[in-house]
From TrEMBL:
CDD domains: ALDH_F9_TMBADH. The keyword Nucleotide-binding does not apply. InterPro entries: Ald_DH/histidinol_DH, Ald_DH_C, Ald_DH_CS_CYS, Ald_DH_CS_GLU, Ald_DH_N, Aldehyde_DH_dom. Transmembrane segments: none annotated. One of its GO terms (cellular component) is cytosol. Its main location: cytoplasm. Residues 32-488 form the Aldehyde dehydrogenase domain. This is Aldehyde dehydrogenase 9 family, member A1a, tandem duplicate 1. It is found in: Cytoplasm, Cytosol. The active site is at residue 259.
Length: 499
């Protein structure tokens, strides 16, 4: 995308979006093509043409060939290639971020952060690649054993549409660092940027086929999960699809990582630093138009500070600049699709019927720029008067809607916060250090943010409890989810046979 072409409403993507064998691959047949829309304009950006069984097989075989070479390289050799890939991404961050915005609808300010997190992730795992090692275990009589940390083989990554490039990086970086190959399937709604990552890995020097991209939806995903040459599936998406992925993978006893949805609680105590708590609540609800798995959408505020909290949170929410996501001043772009916009607006109507009060937003938003008239925009919404039994408080909305509820005591709010089948994230704002750690210990979630929300350095593990999934992404621990341990036992004496 050249600079002059990369403004909202101008880009059309026609290059093939599949990648294996070290190059972009044209779809075998164009039937079942689906239009992909630019969320900010509603215009068709490209066609997503799903891969069938033969194409999936070709991609997986290409990945396997690359795996045979890559897995034999030393960790330090792999690290060098990965560092080069990270460098190229850093160099092209603006171009990649722009394409991400055009395909996804989020603001350029956020997309640049996403791309930075992506290269940081690759850099981080490059750093770990040279540290992978086993253990030496001394046994009686000079006999000993050692363990080897080995790759799994060809791993599959299946991504959601909210962080397309970042998800591809969060999955491929630890996979490649451990010596695996990966075949990645982006969401059919955001097919455009994963192939750029594939090109960059190739340019950095990975063997042809090491990181492949196949386009498609549920059918292509199913083919990937069932393929006998696949050793592991790492999935990011909704709970219902995650269950299917786990079921399909179980047939081949494949390892699985599931990064699923959430309905996370954010607890604000009266002794908090209120301005930070308000800023935290906005960060917990409005990034990427609220389409974030770990968002803290159930905001529990201690009754005594509710009026001040609401006044400030509403004031700041009304001031969020919504509009052209490629403009530097914009802080909220367009939702991913028309059906998603309608679904989110439906949650707001339902909340009103169930007794919720809309303090601001919750309506379709039409920017003044004529080219954005067909975009999927809405005004960010704060709902007051919410109860735990309301639909907006129980279900994942995946849109810019914050539900606020009062609470009185710590014991009560922890019980209410944990009363959900999800467990992805949580947050607490308080100046009481003991309370902060006590609450963090008692919340049933994979992450607890104390006095902040939604920061995600790549050094820190990320993943869910309960139905929000299992396995982790980021952090050192993820090495364990992309490798296996072999034990080698070495006899130094004679065999003492029982027979
Ligand atoms: N925990 C996380 O890290 C995280 C991150 C982003 C999104 N999410 C969750 O993802 C959801 C939104 O994303 P979505 O709408 O893309 O989710 P989704 O479950 O509809 O789709 C996710 C991916 O799965 C693929 N897929 C669909 N059916 C499949 C099947 N039968 N077999 C294999 N693959 C299949 C899709 O094509 C897509 O690539 C939300 O629930 C959100 O919370 C979680
Ligand atoms: C980078 N965030 C904001 C932590 C989001 C992670 C991916 C979840 O949807």
């Amino acid at each position: 995308v050249s600079r002059q072409l990369s403004s909202t409403g101008t880009v059309v993507v026609t290059d093939p979006l599949n990648f294996w064998g070290g190059k972009r691959v044209k779809p075998r047949e164009e039937k079942n093509a689906e239009p992909v829309f630019e969320p900010a304009t509603g215009r068709v950006l490209c066609q997503m043409i799903p891969c069938g069984a033969e194409e999936v097989d070709e991609a997986i075989k290409s990945a396997h060939t690359a795996y045979l070479k890559w897995s034999k390289m030393a960790g330090m050799e792999r690290a060098r290639v990965m560092l080069e890939a990270a460098r190229i991404i850093r160099e092209r961050r603006e171009k990649i971020a722009k394409l991400e915005v055009i395909n996804n609808g989020k603001s350029i300010t956020e997309a640049l952060v996403d791309i930075d997190i992506a290269w940081q992730c690759i850099e981080y795992y490059a750093g770990l690649a040279g540290t992978l090692s086993g253990q030496h275990i001394q046994l009686p009589g000079g006999t000993f054993a050692y363990t080897r940390r080995e790759p799994l083989g060809v791993c599959v990554g299946i991504g959601a549409w909210n962080y397309p490039f970042q998800i591809a990086s969060w999955k491929s970086a630890p996979a490649l660092a451990c010596g695996n190959a990966m075949v990645f399937k982006p969401s059919p709604m955001t097919p455009v940027t994963a192939v750029i990552l594939a090109e960059i890995y190739k340019e950095a020097g990975v063997p042809d086929g090491l990181f492949c991209v196949v386009q498609g939806g549920a059918e292509t995903g199913t083919l990937l999960c069932h393929h006998p040459m696949v050793a592991k599936v790492s999935f990011t998406g909704s709970v219902p699809t995650g269950k299917k992925v786990m079921e399909m993978s179980s047939k081949g006893v494949k390892q699985v990582t599931l990064e699923l949805g959430g309905k996370s609680p954010l607890i604000i105590f009266k002794d908090c630093e209120l301005e930070n708590a308000v800023k935290g609540a906005l960060m917990a609800n409005f990034l990427t138009q609220g389409q974030v798995c770990c968002n803290g959408t159930r905001v529990y505020v201690q009754r005594e500070i509710m009026p001040q909290f609401l006044e400030e949170v509403v004031k700041r929410t009304k001031a969020i600049p919504v509009g052209d996501p490629l403009l530097d001043g914009t802080r909220m772009g367009a939702l991913i699709s028309k059906p998603q916009l309608e679904k989110v607006l439906g949650f707001v109507s339902q909340a009103k019927k169930e007794g919720g009060r809309v303090l601001c937003g919750g309506e379709p938003f039409v920017p003044s720029d004529p080219k954005l008239k067909g975009g999927y925009f809405m005004s960010p919404c704060v709902l007051d008067n919410c109860r735990d039994d309301m639909t907006c408080v129980k279900e994942e909305i995946f849109g810019p809607v914050m539900s606020v509820m009062p609470f009185d005591t710590e014991e009560e709010v922890i019980r209410r916060a944990n009363n959900t089948t999800f467990g992805l994230a949580s947050g607490v704002f308080t100046r009481d250090i003991s309370r902060a750690h006590r609450v963090a210990e008692n919340l049933e979630a994979g992450t607890c943010f104390i006095n902040n929300y939604n920061i995600s350095p790549v050094e820190v593990p990320f993943g869910g409890y309960k139905m929000s999934g299992f396995g982790r992404e980021n952090g050192q621990v993820t090495i364990e989810y992309y490798s296996q341990l072999k034990t080698v036992v070495v006899e130094m004496g004679d065999v003492e046979s029982l027979f």
